[in-house]
Amino acid sequence: MQLTRQSVRCSCGERGRTRARHRNPSAPAQVLVSLGAVAAFIGLGFPAIVALSGWAGLAKFWLAPWLGYHFWMSTFTVVHHTAAHIPFKPAGEWNAAKAQLSGTVHCDYPRWVEFLCHDINVHVPHHVSSKVPWYNLRAATDSLRANWGRYMTEAAWNPRMMKSIFTELHLYDEDKNYVPFDFKKEQPFWAFQRRVLPSTM
Q1: Cβ contacts of residue 151 below 8 Å, gap of 6+?
Q2: pLDDT at 39 over 50
Q3: Domain map of the chain by residue range?
């Protein structure tokens, strides 16, 4: 079977329409509802939190959870899209199917983390087709692995992976894919991280 975007989607269980599903005529209205909800929370929620619990309450009940959530989701996003061997391809060499399979990292986490995140770590099917529901991600991954496994990038979460992402995989480089921020001359901040971050636990 030839590696094409359609053949990969069929392996994942999606058939037929590929482009039409992204055209959503109700999207502008949904955006307005979303913006309205945010404005309502800012106009009503923030003052209520401050009135009932003060500025410390705003930090405790809104800012801290917001920062925690964004750290959690940002970490997932970086792990799923960053690996030393994943190249950036110029438009003429880019292949959608290969990018969906090889440019996305399937990362196994402890089961309790996967449960809390509705298996978003089972990430390759999400890039092949956003229509795969979370409860079918594992079956879709098994199908993709059986048909296209040689193209997939799979890893198990570990401290060495995070250390590599935090200290080495920062800037695009045509020859090496990634170089650290201080690739020309090591900087104290990055040297400190390389020295203190554990490679194992």
Answers
A1: 3, 98, 101, 102
A2: yes
A3: 32-196
